[in-house]
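Re: the request from the purification team.
They wanted to know what the chain is likely to look like in 3D before they choose a buffer screen. I agreed to run a prediction and write the result into the notebook, where they can find it.
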Amino acid sequence: MAARTTATIARTFHGLCLRCPMRTRCCSLKLKLSGHGPVAAIGVLGLSLALAVPGLGATPPPAELVLGQSAALSGPSAMLGQEYREGALAYFAEVNRQGGIHGRRLKLLSLDDRYEPPLTLRNTRQLIERDKVFALFGYVGTPTVKAVLPLVESNRIPLIAPLTGAQLLRQPLRPMVFNLRASYHMEIDRMVDDLVRSGRHRIAVVIQNDAFGQDGLSGALKALKRHGLKPVATARVERNSTQTGGAVSTVMRANANAVVIVAAYPSSASFSREMHRQGSTAQLMNVSFVGTSALRASLLGQEASGIGITQVVPFPWNERVPVVREYQRLMRREQARPHFGFSSLEGFLAAKLTVEGLRRAGPAPTRQRFVTALETMRNVDLGGFRVHLSPKDHNGSSYVDLTILGSQRWEP
């Protein structure tokens, strides 16, 4: 009877975790089972349930591989972290359904940092010191990742597929950091080339006032210099802020006919809306981190039409790409009303990269074996998206594409 009760509890909370519409939070309960020992804490998060109730005689749960994530799950930039996490969970859930990795289930432990570096630092200390995670996964943002790099390096803990294209994670080589996506400099090269070809040479640059924006400005200056150009204006906006009036005034005074925007969607949407209101015809271009779905959702009708966004993963509605077809199938399996998008597809691909590395690390993985396994992933096909890693190159992909809002079919 006791064992049956335990199994029922496990099934109940496992189902809650995977189907709860508020999956951006950790669902936690404490149950007191009278007559069966002390209080048993049951933590439900992401993909797995660790259940241990003294005195019930239950079989211990299978060993887990726990990955730790700090990301914006609430606050102005929440959609970035939420969507990335949803894509990763869809793939991890499928791996667990198939028996895990060498018999071990995957657990993603996600903590909210609201895209604020001090919270990221606090979360990372907790993940490493208290939760004893095997590796870090899917951190969101340049300033947040920059804040934890000393912890990553001093603890020799792998950080896999952070959602940032910043150079500080690429040059010089960070031995414990493995990047899935192309760099912001590659993205900005692509957008500036496109702008120059279309005859737009009066290019302004609007950046977020932090490490992310500074990295983008450096990339923009280099890309413009290749064409013999300089920005006609440079303006800054604060992280997570919608106060963009000063930046709009600076760009309008410079009579720019194109703007490279390096900011997350709250600021970019506010800037774009005000530029449209003032009648600007400048071509607005964003790097991928803006969050395409969130930017579209933040703008209305003509405010969004024609805005360009560079992308570092394939088009999430192109089912001719095998990994996109797989992604859509598994997202539908996990969600009654799946929402496809670039950020969740990136999370999905990051999960595939991580799983492949863990499989190669063998049935008794250590962090060093995991690192070595990732460094053997030369020209690995994840389903129409190729990744190449080596001991001297931890940058998995150079894939960059360009999308224009209002010019493509965005839904199935």
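For the purification team: Residues 1-61 form one domain.
Please add any questions underneath this entry.
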